[in-house]
TrEMBL record:
Keywords: Oxidoreductase
Record keyword Cell inner membrane present: no
Cross-referenced PANTHER family: ALDEHYDE DEHYDROGENASE-RELATED (PTHR11699)
Record-annotated membrane-spanning stretches: none
Domain Aldehyde dehydrogenase stretches: 14-472
Family as reported in the entry's similarity comment: Belongs to the aldehyde dehydrogenase family.
Protein name: Aldehyde dehydrogenase
Family annotation (Pfam families): Aldedh (PF00171)
Any one GO molecular-function label of the UniProt entry: oxidoreductase activity, acting on the aldehyde or oxo group of donors, NAD or NADP as acceptor
Active site per the UniProt annotation: E249
Record organism: Pseudomonas rhizosphaerae
UniProt keyword Oxidoreductase, yes or no: yes
Length: 479
């Protein structure tokens, strides 16, 4: 990818700033370009533009069919730029080009999906008897602040931005410092669609500086955040000062329960995607495999064969396991692996970086004989590290799965539908996969409980996070 300097997008214009971030390819740790580092004054300008657009009702007062047209044009323009964007995302994020391309195509799907709902946000009539007319309407929240993570920056940006625009909100996006360029390409597509100035604004700046500034502002009507638990807790404290409603998608430590009648070929395919896709840098990763003792050794052996057979290297070369985002994150994961062994976990394979690479590569890592109280079984790793834990009966499996403070997703592998349904009811999570990790899609609601956050994204349910219900009650004269 040719080096260039990228800009922020404020009030319909691409804007530079005095400071900048240098961006590194995690597969090589070589520079791929720079981006303007937004300041507090830039953040204030973006917020003022969004506030002005929201207050003007340019988005919300038009016939909803016009918003449908905007959303459709955005989706079309994303598809036009998808190939270019995929190479940019591959270089800054480390994932393979096909995976990066899928991310842009998924972003287009979000705009198509919520574009189809923009003219269907309908209230209800409530019967109060003779003499009254009563009905509800849905007003847009106003200004939505959306703070996007680095692991799937384009698709996660789109999954919040699309429903917000469909409902008639103005938006300020705070992009991740580590992986902002794909979102810039996304905004190039949005710019081509011709939305009113101020409808969408993009800032790349320090989370501690401009993220905190924006989250504390009364002009913000809603905050949507995806990221780590500590950062989410900081944002919630700032939002509490103004009682700003939030949608929080935080971390996970998700478990898959594997019963003796599980289809092991199906399971291994899910392990491949569940923990090694995107180098395990997925909030809903399958980070714990909880396996019935009767098939425990067999599963450990099958998973070891999978892990040792994966190619590790640059995503641009089509490798199976791509780099983690930074050298710092790589070091953090290795420290967690060392602690796991000190606590008694048995390392099956991996646990160390590639010694002959300049990039941030960790070998696919498997631990067995892990007990629920170990740190490696409780804390999110955010890397290609799987722990395998045994159980003897169904209640014990549920207890182990529910033993962390997180509750994002969970999985059940069995041919017994009754058992799957029993487990699904008892698992403490926002989503349960049965016999396929990542089953579902953008049409289904997504979100967690506990330290995994609250509120839902994706699906029809998410749209109602971006509106306020207003009731109108009328006394009819003469009745």
């Amino acid at each position: 990818m040719k080096q260039r300097h990228w800009l922020n997008f404020i009030d319909g214009k691409w804007c530079d700033s005095d400071a900048r971030f240098e961006l590194l390819n995690p597969a090589t740790n070589q520079s791929i370009g720079t981006i303007a580092k937004a300041s507090v004054s830039d953040a204030a300008a973006a917020l003022a533009a969004a506030r002005r657009c929201a207050d003007s009702r340019l988005l919300s007062s038009v016939r909803p069919a016009e918003r449908v047209k905007w959303m459709t044009r955005i989706a079309q323009e994303i598809r036009v730029l998808a190939d270019e964007g995929a190479h940019v995302l591959c270089a800054e994020n480390g994932k393979t080009v096909p995976e990066a391309l899928d991310e842009f195509l998924e972003a287009a799907r979000y705009f198509e999906y919520y574009g189809g709902m923009a003219d269907k946000i309908e209230g209800v009539s409530i019967p109060l008897g003779n003499g009254y007319i009563d009905f509800t309407v849905y007003d847009p929240m106003g200004v939505s602040l959306q703070i996007v993570p680095w692991n799937f920056p384009v698709s996660i940006c789109a999954r919040a931005l699309a429903p917000a625009l469909a409902a008639g909100n103005a938006v300020v996006v705070k992009s991740p410092e580590l992986s902002p360029l794909g979102i810039c390409v996304l905004f190039e597509a949005i710019e081509r669609a011709g939305l009113p100035d101020g409808a969408v604004n993009l800032l790349c700046g320090s989370g501690r500086e401009i993220g905190s500034y924006l989250a504390a502002r009364r002009e913000v009507d809603q905050i949507v955040f995806t990221g780590s638990v500590p950062t989410g807790q900081t944002i919630l404290k700032l939002a509490a000062e103004n009682a700003t409603p939030c949608v929080m998608e935080l971390g996970g430590k998700s478990a898959a329960l594997v019963f003796p009648d599980a289809d092991l070929d199906q399971l291994i395919a899910s392990v491949r995607m569940g923990i090694f896709f995107n180098a395990g840098q997925v909030c809903s990763a399958m980070s714990r495999l909880v396996v019935h003792r009767s098939i425990y050794d067999t599963v450990v052996s099958r998973v070891e064969d999978l892990a040792t057979g994966l190619s590790v290297g640059n995503g641009a070369d089509g490798n199976d396991l791509t780099p983690v985002i930074t050298a710092r994150q790589l070091n953090h994961i290795q420290q967690m692996c060392q602690r796991a062994q000190q606590e008694g976990a048995v390392l099956v394979t991996g646990g160390e970086a590639l010694s002959d690479s300049q990039g941030n590569f960790l070998r696919p890592t498997i631990f067995k004989d892990v007990s629920p109280e170990m740190n490696i079984a409780q804390e999110e790793v955010f890397g290609p590290v799987l722990v395998i834990m045994p159980f003897d009966d169904e209640p014990e499996a549920i207890t182990i799965a529910n033993s962390t403070a997180f509750g994002l997703v969970a999985g059940v592998f069995t041919q017994d539908l009754n058992k799957a349904m029993r487990c699904a009811r008892l698992l403490r999570s926002g989503q349960v996969f049965v016999n396929e990790w990542y089953a579902g899609g953008i049409e289904v609601p997504f979100g967690g409980v506990g330290l995994s956050g609250y509120g839902r994204e994706r699906g029809q349910e998410a749209l109602y996070s971006y509106v306020r219900t207003k009731n109108v009650a009328i006394k009819v004269a003469g009745e």
